[in-house]
Amino acid sequence: MPPGAATPTPRSGWSRAATGLPLIALAVWSRVWLGWAALIPCVLVALWLWLNPRLFPAPRRFDGWMARGVLGERILVSFPDAIPVAHRRMARLLALAGLPGALVFAAGLWTLRLDWVVLGGALAALPKFWFIDRMGWLLADWRAAGRSEWEAP
């Protein structure tokens, strides 16, 4: 990996997947108990989500599922014009597929319906996991074409 390059961090990916939506839900739901003071946990969760990718060291190996997904996503973001149309189309489709779940999640938080929060969170997370898997496929195709994930094509 070149010096100064952003490091894919599968630990960050896993910890965000495990804590992101539950912490958001808890912070927003805390308005019931804390009133306007619930802004404090909301800000703390936002800080955690921003800080999380910066906290973890580079992985020793890049062959795990999350590491491959993170590398593939970095390729998608870094070299969008070099990505085959099928991969770009699927990335957009999966991003849009999570939107209904995010809306149900938000509606559940607004109305304090725990069943909607759980259902919406699941419906939002599943396309994200599929997206990560698809980015691993993109990485495999990228490497099969003889490209390095650290250099422009």
TrEMBL record:
Organism field: Ponticoccus litoralis
Q: Name one Pfam family in it.
A: DUF6653
Keyword annotations from UniProtKB, A to Z:
Membrane, Transmembrane, Transmembrane helix
Q: Which domain of life is it from?
A: Bacteria
Instruction: Give the transmembrane ranges.
Output: 33-51, 93-110, 116-133
What this protein is called in its record is: DUF6653 family protein
InterPro entries named among the record's database cross-references: DUF6653
